[in-house]
Amino acid sequence: MRRFLLLVLLASVCAGLARADGAGNPAPASSDSGEYYDKDGNPTYKIGADGTVDWFTFIGYRMYGANCLQCHGPDALGSSYAPSLVDSLKSLTTQQVQSTIINGKRDVTASQELVMPSFGENKNVMCYLEPIYVYLRARSDGALGRERPVKHEPKPDGWEKKVDSCFG
Ligand code: HEC
């Protein structure tokens, strides 16, 4: 029994160490107004043992569904003409992901036409840039399954004000 517990402990420590993406180790190191940051200051997710997700991951799930799903597929797994973001985020940094969303990306050749629109002028995306990023980060790390997150942390104080002032 003791040995079993030790193995379980070792396995979970290893899983913790193995979990890293293009932005590095996603473990939350600080938080502010419901948003979590890793040790490098990049936005990250926090998912409790019972599956409760942080507010940003929950909002990101919804905004991904509204703005990105039609091309990148349900659950960010990709489609016939846009890549799987679950795969892409394994190697892209926070900066790279966010600048692709802001500026778009295109790869047009004789045999294919891949166009990622730029969302820099689209407030429905720009006002939720960090929530969308942390949702994708959690999906890419395998920390979040394919389903809609069932439980989430409460809406942080000042959230609506922040969104309203972004929409201006
Ligand atoms: C109209 C379809 C379309 C929509 C909507 C769209 N994308 Fe894309 N996206 C693409 C295509 C196509 C590519 C590949 C572009 C290329 O390879 O040059 C891409 C590439 C990307 C990449 C870079 C992937 C890599 O491996 O370099 C990221 C990150 C990304 N999209 C995120 C998003 C997010 C987040 C949203 C929602 C806010 C979104 N996209 C909405 C079509 C779309």
Bound molecules: heme C
- In quaternary terms, these chains amount to single chain
User: Any idea of the CATH topology?
Assistant: Cytochrome Bc1 Complex, Chain D, domain 2
Distance between the termini: 60 Å
Tally of separate helices: 8
Question: What does this 3D model show about the protein?
Answer:
With about 170 residues, the protein is mainly α. The protein has one domain (about 20-165): Cytochrome Bc1 Complex, Chain D, domain 2, CATH 1.10.760. Helices cover about 45% and strands about 10% of the residues. It has helices spanning about 1-20, 55-65, 70, 85-90, 95-105, 125, 130-140, 160-165, and strands at about 30, 35, 45, 105-110, 115. The strands form 2 sheets. The chain has a 3-stranded antiparallel sheet, with helices on one face. It has a two-stranded antiparallel sheet with strand order 4-5. A hairpin with a 5-residue loop joins β2 (about 35) and β3. The longest helix has 17 residues, at about 1-20. The mean pLDDT is about 90. The structure holds heme C.
List keywords for this structure.
43% helix, 10% strand, two-stranded antiparallel sheet, mainly alpha, binds heme C, three-stranded antiparallel sheet, 168 residues, 8 helices, Cytochrome Bc1 Complex, Chain D, domain 2, 5 strands
Task: Give a nutshell description of this structure.
The protein has 168 residues and is mainly α. It has helices at residues 2-18, 55-67, 69-72, 85-88, 94-103, 123-126, 129-140, 159-167, and strands at 30-32, 35-37, 43-44, 105-108, 113-116. Strand 1 and strand 2 (35-37) form a beta hairpin.
